Amino acid sequence: MSLKGVYRFGFELSVLHLCDKPRKECVSTLPLEAGGCWIEFTNVANAGLKQLAPNIYKADNYGEAWMEGTGRIAREPGNFGHLNGYSCQVQLTHVRVIDGGPPYMFRPPEP
């Protein structure tokens, strides 16, 4: 299935905030920890991610980007991801788009 949304990543964080609207309508003020599905990448998707954005994980170890791809969503048994803190999990099998540019989806955390 086709999936898109905001990918947020960092130390113990790998989350896709799914959004079925156009990118400009997916703006939110959710805190870093709120909602979303834990995301895992197949080897093929991970290779595609590294090809599209080779430096994505080299910044401050935290970031966010608009992502579009193909995959599936699991909602049962629940309790996915870091400390079983997510009610759903996305397994991405192919990454089509990764874009960290504006419009930014979330406000940066307060200093």
* Beta-strand percent range: 35-45%
Shape: globular
Mean pLDDT: 81
Point out poorly predicted stretches: 105-111
Across the major sheet, the strand order is: 1-2-3-5-4
Strands, count: 5
Q: Helix amount, in percent? A: under 10%
What do these coordinates show?
By secondary structure, this protein is mostly beta strands. The chain contains one helix and five strands; from the N terminus they run E-E-E-H-E-E. The protein has one helix spanning 43-52; strands at 2-10, 13-18, 37-41, 63-74, 89-99. The longest helix has 10 residues, at 43-52. It starts with a strand and ends in a 12-residue tail after the last strand. Mean pLDDT is 81; it is low at 105-111.
Topology:
Blueprint: E1 2-10, E2 13-18, E3 37-41, H1 43-52, E4 63-74, E5 89-99
Parallel strand pairs: 3-5
Antiparallel strand pairs: 1-2, 1-4, 2-3, 4-5
In summary, what is this structure?
This protein is mostly beta strands and 111 residues long.
Keywords:
single chain, 5 strands, five-stranded mixed beta barrel, mainly beta, 1 helix, 111 residues
